[in-house]
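notes to self, project folder thing:

trying the whole complex as one job this time. last attempt i did each chain seperately and stitching them together was a nightmare. three parts in total, labels are on each line so i dont mix them up again. if this works i'll redo the older ones the same way
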Amino acid sequence: MKMNKKKTIFTAGVLLVLFAVCVLLDLTLPSYHIAVTVIKKATVYALVAVSMNLLNGFTGLFSLGQAGFMLLGAYTYGVLTIPDEKKATVYQYFENGGLPFSFTNIFGGIFGDKVGTVVGMLIALLIGGMLAALFAFLIGLPVLRLKSDYLAIATLGFAEILKAFFQWNGLGPITNGSNLLKSYPTFNKATPYVLLAGAMIALIVLLINSTYGRAFKAIRDDEVAAEAMGINLAKHKRLSFIISSFFAGIGGGLMAMYMGTIAAAPFKSALTYEILLIVVIGGIGSITGSVLASFLYIFSSEWLLRGLDSGTFLGINAPAVFKNGFRMAVFSVIIMVIVLFFRKGIMGDKELPDLLDKRPKSRKKKEAAGK
Amino acid sequence: MGQIIPYIVNGVSVGGQYALIAIGYTLVYGILRLINFAHGDVFMVAGLVMVYTTTALPLYISLPLVLIATVVLGFTIERVAYKPLRTAPRMSVMISAIGVSYLIQNLAFYITGGVPQPVTKPIPWISNNVELFGGSTKMVTLVTPVLTIALVFVLVYLINHTKIGMAMRAAAKDFETAQLMGIKINSVISMTFVIGSFLAAIGSILYFTNYPSVAITSGGMPGLKAFVAAVFGGIGSIPGAVVGAFIIGLCEEIIKGLGYTTFSDAFTFALLIVVLCVKPTGLFGEKVTDKV
Amino acid sequence: MSKNVLKIENATMQFGGVVAVDNLNLEINQGEIVALIGPNGAGKTTAFNVVTGVYQPTNGAVYFNGEKIIENHPQGKMKKLYKGEHNGEYTNVLAPTPDIITKMGMARTFQNIRLWKSQTVFDNVLIAKHCRTTSNIFTATLRMNRKEEAKQRAEVEELLKVVGLYEERNELATSLPYGKQRRLEIARALAAEPTLLLLDEPAAGMNPQETDELTAFIGEIRDKFNVTIFLIEHHMDLVMHISDRIYVLDFGKQIAEGTPAEIQNNQRVIDAYLGVAEEDA
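result (full assembly):
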């Protein structure tokens, strides 16, 4: 019991310090500063990575549809929040394009401009998540019966189908076809991203530690035993798939905020792969790992290793080597090394509070031997 | 009706190219139960090597070089990225495959600078234009299906009538027992990667003769579609992969011909999902049951 | 006459042309320990899989506590292939999945241990309680089910004490020695609150001392948890010692039924186990 209290205090402490640092950075640095950008992007990736981990790491369903659900969330967010007065310029190729209403204006009218915009943004995010969840439900009906790699390829295919639909000019009056969606409201500071993604991740952590989360893990470890112990496989797999997609949808909405413009192209399978690799780096089955890996990944790719692409790195000036693309090449080599030699990733299946355990297993074994 | 014929001809040709890639997927899946996500990128690298070597070297050197380089790449990928994970869970191997795909694409991006490399010296004769049914097409369109079928016959003969072919069949049937029976499983697996890469290289030469340039992402889509073809035909079955590839190639080109180009990719995946849900074992696949 | 818990009626399980279980009829009454024995490949585990919903029988029915829970008749290709008896007597199709059957009150263990490897001893048992939980995913996530969760945890602790695994509760299930893993599997099945417990070769791979302990343990849990037990076993000491009645299968067919003493003296059973001298041999 004492240990549990210690762990809670430790976890709360670490999280508080991190949050304080983020607020401090927000207060002292301009919003275009690279540190703020890194935090924004990393929190979005962290949320999506955690949502993917819920499905792939905790339920053992190898799904590669994350980009598709993010796409749904992003578009829903954009379409619902573009202010009425901006619609003419955004949908310049589609006369009277866009929805006949905008959350920004509706809630702006109720709560006043500032608060109303934020309320509208949050509700749009939520609807994006719910739409992703609805699609997950529908696609899950046939697809979730498939075994591991077939499921992977089917979900990947589903994401590609979605992408094609969103680029189709037939849906142009809503999605703007192959053109960008823009001019929707976004958060400039990093703190809102941290708060939102943090709250979502907290929900996922609560879920994983609940009786349903334990059932998910049982399915991952041994499906046959799980079913024999009264766990309805179809229902629980569907739940996990829907919830994961819901959070991926919200992640997509946040991604839209971060990017400032929405197009279908970035939500390609490479994005799913990128997130999957983040999950692997952090450790499949560790929420802490996914979050940590997202920050490390974004921090190094956006900031630390920038020099690898632009001529000078660590004071060495070698434009012939450090040219465009070198950073990602180095990255992929690191990823392969992790995949091949450090299969457990940074955290394995440990979480933040577990860091306080000092090799509990070996100690217990000694005790057992002593008896 | 006359307008649709060029699309059908094209479809058969594209189908042939998919078939050559699909065989690589189906062979590897048959033995390792692994979707080799990197296979499409191997295909892309073959295209890049072709672009680079044909501009610098005469054809009789450059073409064999493309084949050798691709085969070496396929062999190396297996040895470095899949062999160490032989006893690991399937998910780890699949992740490794995705990692390799990511690595190849990023390396290719670094080398090419992210610019699509133009096919400056297309291979003569097969890139000549021919008149066909009142339309004009490249010779390669006609050569591809013929060459594909010929290669498939050779491969099927190889698998049914040679020692290594027998070993491959045994390994596909039961990996562990094959190992216990003294089959050198690692050389069998290497062989499947060698064959797969070799065919992908030929597919690549044919494919990129029809295109003006090779981009680093050029491998992804044909790769995925070839995989769909393999699943459609029943993964593990070579005739299945070939038939599946031709059907997908045809359907795609016909959809393009009808003016729905945006959905030609989507169609392939929709087909995949339908096949997986209705008949997961594909057209020619065998049924697998789990034991409790 | 005590209450009938399980009744298998004319059950036939045919895979392609192979009849794994051939017209099996079997009854188990409340509080009994009934063993199903037979040589390897006799169809014992298949019979278990039919009862627990893993396989759908080709023909026949299963009753649980007097209620018909499983029923099937040859369909599709099987119509022509079917070699068993009682063809045409069954017309309904009742095929609940294993989880539904477990919820009805039947829980099983496996011949080859199937514990959840990454989970602790405690969690392995706690997860089996999941099928008894009344909270939905929202109330569970938002911790509005504290009472139920606390109750389940207390029950699991109690159960672990009874089966003697309390000391090891925080260890990984797979780090336990073999005999204790078997015991844990039984504990996990008990956590699902069954009225009928199915044990598939619980003593497989155990040494004589462990087998003796297990024999006592099975008797103990029947009394403590008030369960009926149906088991498959090869260790004849165990079977003869604790069974009230025994059914013998050979090549999918039931060849004998009776008390341990009757079975021990049954010529057909002896033949099945030792083989019969062929006339021309």
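what i see at first glance: Chain C has a mean pLDDT of 90.
need to look closer tmrw
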